[in-house]
Amino acid sequence: MSVKYSERDIDAVREILNIGIGRAAGMLNKITKSHITLTVPDVEIISPKEFRERKNTGDEDNLATVKLEFKGEFSGTTAVLFPPDSAANLVMAITGEEAGTPELDAIRIETLKEVGNIIINGVMGSVGNIIKSPLNYEIPAYNEESIVNLVSESKIVEEDGIILAMTKFRVADLNVEGTIVMVLETGSMNTLLEKINSI
User: Which of 18, 41, 29 is nearest to 127 (CA)?
Assistant: First the structure.
């Protein structure tokens, strides 16, 4: 039986994510010298079962994915995923490289890794400020996979929680969409919500 989370819980998670995303946008602006805005308009907290039953969850086979595993008072995986078109548009907007550039594949991977790392660091920094407890991080990894594979590879059970946050990027006049997925292991969702709601 899945746990239902209140609007207050979801709003609290959205606020924390927006703080982290705001920091990430500031870092991206400095590094790329492009005006980048990021927003998190939609946030959901669902169970693995609900996730698997979803239609249209962006389950493409080659989403550009940067993910980071963490352990501590709460444990899980945070990832940023971009559909192919959004990934290509984001890379070209940031680097100025055109499609067909011989080195574009290598540039693409390095750029997406850097952007993904900045976003994840912003989000996890924001979460860490709430938890006030050290977390141990694995080395961030880049891959191209489906969002369902990302969740199925995580060490989760049906009582665990999955935070899905649709992220919108704007680079100049270009719209790019991505998804932040935070998969929390047993008990970690409750720990996070208790910390957030105690502020």
Answer: 18
Q: What is the fold, at CATH topology level, of the domain defined by 7-197?
A: Chemotaxis protein chec (3.40.1550)
Which H, E and C letters describe the chain, residue by residue? Answer: CCCCCCHHHHHHHHHHHHHHHHHHHHHHHHHHCCCEEEEEEEEEEECHHHHHHCCCCCCCCCEEEEEEEEEECCCEEEEEEECHHHHHHHHHHHHCCCCCCCCHHHHHHHHHHHHHHHHHHHHHHHHHHHHCCCEEECCCEEEEECHHHHHHHCCCCCCCEEEEEEEEEEECCEEEEEEEEEEECCCHHHHHHHHHHCC
pLDDT in tens, 43-96: 888 887 777 776 454 556 788 999 999 988 888 889 999 988 888 888 887 887
Phi-psi region of 171 (alpha: psi -120 to 50; beta: other; left: phi over 0): beta
The reported pTM is 0.83
